[in-house]
Amino acid sequence: MQVYLPIAEMSVDALLLLGIGFGVGWLSGLFGVGGGFLLTPLLILIGIPAPVAVASGANQTIGASVSGLIAQWRRGNVDARMGVVLLAGGFVGSSLGVQLFALLRRLGQVDLAVAFFYVVVLGTVGLLMVRESVRAIIRRRRTGGAASPKAHEHTWLHGMPFKMRFRKSRLYISVVPPALVGFGIGILSAVMGVGGGFMLVPAMIYLLGMPTSVVIGTSLFQVVFVAANVTLLQAWQVGTVDIVLTMLLLAGGVAGAQFGAAMGTKLRGEETRALLGLLVLAVALGLAWGLIRAPDNLFAIGPAR
Amino acid sequence: MRAAAFLLTLLLGWTGSAAAQAPAPVTTPALTADLSTDRVEITTGFTGASVLVFGATENLIGSETGEDVVVLAWGPPQPTVVRRKVNVMGFWVNGPAATFPEIPGFYAIAATRPVWEALPEETRRTARLGLEALPLRAVGAQAPAFRAALLELKQQDGRWQEYAAPVAVAGGRLFSARIYFPDTVQTGDYRIEVLLVRERRIVARQALFLRVDRVGTAASIAQVARAMPLVYGVGCILLAALAGWLGSVIFRRG
């Protein structure tokens, strides 16, 4: 069944979009991430123009994360104070990111930049995740029990000014590191069309030292609002948010996420992280191959602006 | 429907015109043509459309009489940029680009005989008959390869067509041709020209007009997104949030 996308100005198979939404939703439910990093490259792969794929991907992320946020909020797993600090950085970062995106679009380098960002970010994060989880698995096998929690270490982060008490996270740290983390992920979120949960979660655990119990909820808090900011700015300044595309992806996505989440409870933490890391790496490698492979046609046409 | 009615009046016209227009000298137009529709609507289920161009000539069409019919379709101008990929340190990146500011977004030509057989080059150039006759002036990179790539890629995605569909002739005088618009067709005003060619000259021509419009939901969405981008952005956020929340409620219970 073909459906016409009014902003992308093309028609695509609705079932294909529902299927992609379902598949990505299933994986995101399984791994507890938004799945934007899989969705945007897939959309580009089926021929959606990169600017529309990125903007609509951000839009879809809101829908994919909002129910998770509500559930986490009810359980009291959101450190709102930390969330607001992250968000402050996130708003600035994503606003700058959209400007950067608009500039790249004028220069005709959006496709390259999006692919490049993906390869570098996903490659790095994927490698780190695989390495960390494999270590954890090995450690668990050796000791025969659960990995011992990390001792609270004092690093250079604790010497920074503007300290604030984050009660839920049981932290007394400077607001600079979380604001910077939010800023960086905000930029990536605008350029890549992702929520950034897959980067935010490790950053919160390893950089900020937040307890795992509040990490998911707080990252969802940041993801939902940053994705909303990206959606608004992309719609306003670039004009590439396709609501028909978003809704089709969400229709498949929310269904898939429930199945994925049910299955995810049966997997152990380290194995899940290792699998997710491998998946992230695979996407990075696929996109890298697209950049280094000799193109079939050296020429490409596009609308001039 | 309209086509049948038209043909009917045309046939009646032939038999009845002598009596009806007795005082004036009897002049049958050398060429008459019309379109099956003057509006192509892009709906939510739009996958492309085709429009029938049909008409009749005074004389017989064909190689014996030397008369040919050429059908030409023009879309609104669509500035297009052609980019060439270059290898920078092992990566293929967009390199030099040529911008074609004044080329039609859609162009199709169909004829009973290829125009290069029927018309001299000068006429083809002034009437812009055939892709070769289109003035493709570029800003930026000037290499002929950009022009060639533009021609190739535009034909590949169906927005430029050269003899993609035939001009069919029935009974020697009635002709028809189909113009196919792909799903990526631009909205705007389209001009369809029908030319009658005799002895390497264009002896008659008729211009017809067609409008491509978005209608229904697709139109409203595109219109809101363009006219009120902030409202549209807020709407997208709320709809996505609502869909996500609703989905989780439905599937939790189900």
Describe the protein.
The complex is a heterodimer of chains A (305) and B (254). Helix content of chain A is 71%, strand content 7%. Chain A is mostly helical and 305 residues long. Chain A has one domain (2-142, 181-287). In chain A, the strands form two sheets. Chain A has a two-stranded antiparallel sheet with strand order 1-2. A two-stranded antiparallel sheet of chain A has the order 3-4. In chain A, strand 1 and strand 2 form a beta hairpin. The mean pLDDT of chain A is 84. With 254 residues, chain B is an alpha+beta fold. Chain B has helices at residues 2-20, 115-118, 121-127, 144-156, 216-227, 229-253, and strands spanning 31-35, 39-42, 49-57, 67-74, 80-88, 91-100, 107-111, 139-140, 160-162, 167-170, 174-181, 188-198, 201-214. The termini of chain B are far apart. Residues 10-22 of chain B have low confidence and may be disordered. Chains A and B meet through strand 1, helix 3, helix 5, helix 8 and helix 9 of A and strand 5, strand 6, helix 4, helix 5 and helix 6 of B. Chain B: This is TIGR02186 family protein.
The helix count of chain A comes to 10
What do the pLDDT scores of chain B average to?
Answer: 85
Number of strands of chain A: 5
CATH superfamily of the largest domain in chain B: Immunoglobulins
Q: Compute the number of structural domains of chain B.
A: 2
Query: In percent, how helical is the residue content of chain B?
Result: 25-40%
Name of the top-level CATH class of the largest domain in chain B:
Mainly Beta
Q: Which structural class matches the secondary elements of chain A?
A: mainly alpha
Computed Rg of chain A: 19 Å
Tally of strands of chain B? 13
